[in-house]
């Protein structure tokens, strides 16, 4: 592909081919979930080239203890194109998954899932390669269209408002603690929005309004990025 427009056409075709396979229902029993992995990436530039490291941290669902953490880094070949982030990040995500000794029951991404113009944020898109349910939890709001904004929920832990676009619920604005900024939860695939919300709340601790899987993954990306830059 020689141009951004050609990439956008091809990337749209690929995502549209997956769209009909998205399921917003649980394909599992909640009692069977034992482990969850947080996924995040960090970027840097060197010699006019762009690099990133993907970090995955596997957490025990009940004790919140870290079971395993792995990382994989490489050069990013796909330019940044709004709403096509998955094509930049999935190659590194899949290479990191290959390193895991403990395959998690579910993945949580620092990013969006169904809350996306084609309902194919990183959490949803990656699910078709991971064969696991996925959740997207974003720290900032991704505006799917120009006319739709989010409504702040009540200033109380567990309060939420749905993000509705053209009569369809795309995601949820969730307050995980009193007096903190909300996060933006969306189902990735093979999970309901209610369950994604429930698990997000279950995995939040006192130290942060971000659920621990993506919080730990985010912290690990900063550590690994510094090491990789200095080496």
Would you tell me which CATH topology applies?
archaeoglobus fulgidus dsm 4304 fold
> Quick one: CATH class?
Alpha Beta
Residues in helices, as a percent range: 25-40%
Number of helices: 5
Structural class: alpha+beta
**Radius of gyration (Å):** 17 Å
Largest beta sheet, briefly? 8 strands, mixed
- Can you write the helix and strand succession as a string? HEEEHEHEEEEHH
Word description of this protein:
With 231 residues, the chain is an alpha+beta fold. The protein is 29% helix and 27% strand. An 8-stranded mixed β-sheet has the order 3-2-1-4-5-8-7-6, sandwiched between helices. β1 (35-46) and β2 form a beta hairpin. The model has no long low-confidence stretch (mean pLDDT 96).
Characterize this entry briefly.
This protein has 231 residues and is of the alpha+beta class. It contains 5 helices and 8 strands. Strand 6 and strand 7 form a beta hairpin.
């Amino acid at each position: 592909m020689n141009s951004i427009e050609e990439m956008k056409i091809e990337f749209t075709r690929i995502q549209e081919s997956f769209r009909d396979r998205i399921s917003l229902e649980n394909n599992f029993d909640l009692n069977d979930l034992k482990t969850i992995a947080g996924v995040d990436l960090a970027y840097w530039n060197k010699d006019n080239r762009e690099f990133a490291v993907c970090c995955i941290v596997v957490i025990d669902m009940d004790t919140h203890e870290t079971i395993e953490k792995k990382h994989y880094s490489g050069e990013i070949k796909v330019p940044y194109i709004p709403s096509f982030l998955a094509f930049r990040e999935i190659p590194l995500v899949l290479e990191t998954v290959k390193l895991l000794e403990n395959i998690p029951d579910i993945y949580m991404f620092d990013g969006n899932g169904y809350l996306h113009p084609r309902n194919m944020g990183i959490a949803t898109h990656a699910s078709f390669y991971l064969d696991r349910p996925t959740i997207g939890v974003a720290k900032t709001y991704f505006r799917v269209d120009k006319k739709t904004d989010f409504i702040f929920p009540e200033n109380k832990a567990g309060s939420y408002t749905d993000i509705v676009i053209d009569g369809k619920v795309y995601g949820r604005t969730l307050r995980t603690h009193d007096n903190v900024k909300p996060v933006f939860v969306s189902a990735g695939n093979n999970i309901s929005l209610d369950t994604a919300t429930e698990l997000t709340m279950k995995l939040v601790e006192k130290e942060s309004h971000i659920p621990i899987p993506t919080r730990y993954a985010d912290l690990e990306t900063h550590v690994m990025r510094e090491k990789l830059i200095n080496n």
